[in-house]
Amino acid sequence: MTKIGNHFFDIGYMDTLASGDSPLHRLDPRVKLITTLAFIVTVVSFDKYALSELIPFFIFPIFQISLGGLPTGYLLRKVLMISPFAALIAIFNPLMDREILLQIGSISVSGGWVSFFSILTRFLLTVTAALLLIAATGFNTVCTALARLGVPRPFVVQLMFLYRYIFVLTDEASRMVRAISLRSFHSGGMSFKTFVPMMGHLLLRTLDRAQRIHLAMLCRGFDGRICIVRSMKIGYNEVVFAIGWSVLFVILRCYNIPKMLGALVIGFFG
Amino acid sequence: MSHHIVEVEDLHYNYPGGTVGLNGVSFRITHGESVALVGANGAGKSTLLLHLNGYLVATRGQVRIGDYPLTRKNLKIVRRSVGMVFQDPDDQLFMPTVFDDVAFGPLNLGLAEAEVELNVMQALETVGVPHLRERPPYKLSGGEKRSVAIATVLAMSPDILVMDEPSSSLDPKSRRRLIGLLKTFHHTKIIATHDLDMALDLCERTIVLHRGKLTADGPTLELFQDEDLLARSGLEKPLKMQGCPICGKKGEEQTPLPDSKTCSGNRLTG
User: Fold this and answer.
1) For chain B, what are the domain ranges?
2) In this predicted model, what pLDDT tens digit does every residue of A64-102 receive, in sequence order?
3) What DSSP state is assigned to residue A52?
4) Does any CB of chain A come closer than 8 Å to the CB of residue B186?
5) Shortest CA distance to B152 belongs to which of B108, B174, B184, B120?
6) Chain A neighbors of B83, CB-CB under 8 A
7) Contact A140 B97 (CB under 8 A)
8) Is the ipTM of this complex over 0.90?
9) Whether B151 contacts chain A with CB within 8 A
10) A110, containing H or E segment
11) What is the largest CA-CA distance in chain B?
12) Structural domain boundaries of chain A?
């Protein structure tokens, strides 16, 4: 649990990154959000055996990291932490899909393995892009941007509250776990028998807190709308950023650049 | 117009389970008074406070704030004039940043953005934390959280301040600072607390609750000398008024407020 606790403190570190000042940080959050979405949609839209086509897309995260001066190692560690989920989804492909798709020398590669790596590459691209968005913008600012772009308020407010109270909740949970482990002398982790009531308690506490928060909101005139004052401005830089990248994504989507380069090289020597 | 008056008449409240919360409480607090609400755990302090802003509706009896009897219709006006500071600042600070949080009330009141900005900064300066404006609430210390929670209420310029255990979980220095701060406010104040020393410092009048009933209402110093009453209500003399641990001399009983200079030991306890 302490590990989970650390993990969440790490999320707090994202906010520290987001408070930085760089050309990337200064861009309007709405533009970054839209561009990232365009990026993710393009990456996801490829055929399931697409692999070489995806490689050029790494230019977007690399560009952002260098422009925003963001720590690559930290972000990669974060991506790795969630990678088991993607691997779990992809792992069945090599087993199910055994049709030979590629022949490299004497090694034959089945379609399953190609799609396995395709899924992992997409995962790497999309998750990195999402993390970069948050690292260079901040979760709350992304939420504000969502609201400005017309995403329904209840949805945005949910996200904001989630982010506000996840720290309180993990604090509470880790205190409970500490209390349990101090009084359970067998070392083998938490048993199911203690885990279930703990979750129940946590839920009840959360409901209580939700009620108190609602009361606090009512006391200050809450009437269903949450207003946030933020000035956002879309200028020349923003337009260039959004259009430039979107055009590039479309080009990369329509033309397989690595294949063309390959053909060019082979044509040149052959 | 007498906005700052709080009048409670024969207030009864039963919790849904049938537990008696309040059992016939009546008092009248006038403009500018500072009143401590003391009593053992479960005496009904918090229940009473929740009636003052209309969160709980009395089973019998009536609450009047200023010129209005508290009914569903004028709930909004009443909530505007009664500023409530909760026991757990985490319940009260629910917005992404300190600024947004303090601005929440004024924005809901429909103030213009420029005015809100002014309002917020004024409130933050009053409690001495203007430098925290961009910080997320979960990164603040306990004392800072409390200060910001008070600022969120001040920004709505209430007539009456209602506080639930404002000095709990503060370190001695933060507590002292809080007392100093509260002393500078000229609002009508109602402070529910177990910290009788703070009550002695801040409130000239005290209301004692015991099992949902009002057992005493009078000048703080007088009530706190009535050991019999205190014992019956599950309370104890404030440390300041107890014997000095070094010379054994009684404290405030012999030496009048505010400064007791009988011995250095008294300083220690005070």
Assistant:
1) 6-235, 238-270
2) 999 988 888 888 888 888 888 888 888 888 888 777 777
3) G
4) no
5) B120
6) 219
7) yes
8) no
9) no
10) strand A107-110
11) 60
12) 1-151+233-257, 152-226
Residues from chain A that touch B104, judged by Cβ atoms under 8 A, are 217, 220, 222, 226-227
Q: pLDDT tens digit string along B40-72?
A: 988 889 899 989 988 888 888 889 888 778 888
Q: Quick check: A257 and A57 in contact, CB under 8 A? A: no
Q: Which residue of B50, B94, B100 is in closest CB contact with A228?
A: B100
Token pair of A9 as six digits: 């403190």
**In which region does residue B26 sit, left (phi positive, over 0), alpha (psi from -120 to 50) or beta (all else)?**
beta
- Topology of B6-235 in CATH? Rossmann fold (3.40.50)
* Residue B8: count of CB within 10 angstroms of its CB: 23
Average pLDDT of chain A, as a whole number: 84
pLDDT at residue B1 tops 70: no
Q: How confident is the model at residue B186 (pLDDT cuts 50, 70, 90)?
A: confident
User: Quick one: pLDDT at residue B121?
Assistant: 93
A152, two tokens: 């329904």
The residue with greater pLDDT, A187 or A57, is A57
Distances in Å between the alpha carbon of A220 and those of A145, A225, B82, B164, B183?
24, 12, 9, 16, 23
